[in-house]
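Could you show me just one protein sequence together with its fold in token form as a worked example?
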Amino acid sequence: MNILLKSVTIVNENTKNLHLKKRDILIKNGVIDAIETNIEPSSKTKVIDIKNLHVSLGWFDSGVSFGEPGYEERETIENGLLTAAKSGFTDVILNTSSHPTPDSSSDIVYLKSAAKDQLTSLHPLGNLTVKGEGEVLAELYDMKNAGALGFYDYKHPMSNANLLKIALQYAQNFEALVFSFPMDKSISGKGIVNEGISSTKLGLKGIPALAEELQIARDLFILEYTGGKLFIPTISTASSVKLIADAKKKGLQVYCSVAAHNLVITDTALEDFDTQYKVMPPLRTAADTKALQKGLKSGTIDFVTSDHTPLNIELKHVEFDNADFGSIGLESTFGMLNQLFGHEGAIGLLTKGRSLFGINEPELKVGQPANLSLFTTDDEYKFSEDQIFSSSKNSIAIDEQMKGKVVGTIANNQIVLNA
């Protein structure tokens, strides 16, 4: 298949001679064949010529959830990867949120097999502990050999500090990445939203910022003792940013992410008791969102994730106390980031980080496989259900102001377009 991108603006700081320049890009059989000022198409070439079209390296998400196996009604792997492709992502890390959760090499093999031959590449995580119960370490080495890129009991805090210590020590033998969700359950208790003015006004049980920060402080002390690589997913408070910044200054190998919605939406959105705003970690204060934004700009926070979590309607359309935590986010992440940081800043965040997981970093140059995201930058709109590709519709971003739209993706000798 031959594809010609006409007069596209290239957004790629790694190639200074092409960055923000308009060029034609010819792709033959999945490989970039030419990048020129003007290329005339042959009769068998698919031409994409769209006003304000931009192109970057394919985007990467360090933490998404689908439903399969066990919760296929929420999202299958096939539709989840199609949603990712339509949302601009060519590589995604899959969380351990299925049922059963993946805690053996055969589970990892199944996930990779189910995602075979898709445009967007799926990279699974394995459970850190058996069944994600936090009691016994899972088969980490076997799962690593089968293709697991890290180990995470999804959204379940590791309460046993000694087990985390052992995991970090053991994982160093095969350069594995250990995840630890930042929440001290003895502090958070039965809380469901951020503890503060909004929770008090609404009469909802609060989760103090302290619950996150205590867990992070503990984990960093353990990491300093053991060495190894620690990933802290979806931080949400200003003090968490400072704790991680201080740890990085010490030379610790600690990495972290933030969910896109925690950069934009605050706990004041809870006033209507809309369960779409019930997420974990909870929405925090304006001071926290500003600190998270600064943490991204400074490099303290390594990744922005969609934290894509599909949930079927009966888990959300209930009383706030009884609703499940989570929101889809693949479709809205670029629009949020572009609105917040501009398209150069957004693309910088969306294309970084594969190397930490051992995934090959794509290159935008002749002779390299095409791994590209296509988008516009100036369209302004409110996000609506019309922009959702997921099987589940539980989006925290409904009615949020967005800027820029994803046109499609090219990878693995395939193309997916939204128009």
